[in-house]
Design brief:
The protein is mainly alpha-helical. The chain contains four helices and two strands. It starts with a helix and ends with a helix.
Length: about 150
């Protein structure tokens, strides 16, 4: 029963991202609020990378994850401009994270996992963390789309 509850919670939280995808254009990928802030393209890539990391490191999916937006000192240099590639990566990260959630036994949600980023937490807490991470950055994208200029 727990996994049956956790999956729709995650899916609903992820709609903050997925509901925006149809309106994102190749031209909007470079938009940002401030010259030192992250662009929509960078945020899309970052969301996908972190979702894949969670599927791998927290939930045990056998994945290779190439990181371009995660780590100390990482800056957005405006190189995430291929909308098709970004959407494909987000589709993959969504599929992998969903498969990882579905693979969990109900009792495993209380199992603790150790992470470098936020210490030892349960798998249920980790799912909450990735759900809010995606929604947080989706909110940033919505603000960028609303207030930022085209360049």
């Amino acid at each position: 029963m727990t996994t049956e509850i956790m999956l729709p919670i995650w899916k609903m939280g992820r709609t903050r991202l997925t509901n925006q995808l149809a309106a994102i254009t190749p031209e909007s990928l470079s938009r940002r609020i401030h010259p030192d802030s992250n662009s929509i393209g960078w945020l899309l890539r970052h969301i996908a990378e972190v979702e894949l990391l969670f599927a791998k490191n927290v939930f045990g999916r056998a994945l290779q994850v190439k990181l371009s937006t995660v780590g100390q000192g990482i800056k957005d240099h405006g190189n995430f401009t291929d909308l098709g590639e970004l959407k494909a990566m987000l589709e993959e990260s969504g599929r992998e994270l969903e498969a990882a959630i579905l693979h969990q036994e109900d009792e495993s949600w209380a199992t603790e996992v150790a992470t470098r980023e936020f210490g030892t937490i349960t798998k249920a807490e980790a799912l909450s963390r990735i759900t809010t991470h995606t929604a947080w950055h989706a909110g940033q994208m919505a603000i960028i789309k609303k207030y930022a200029g085209a360049g």
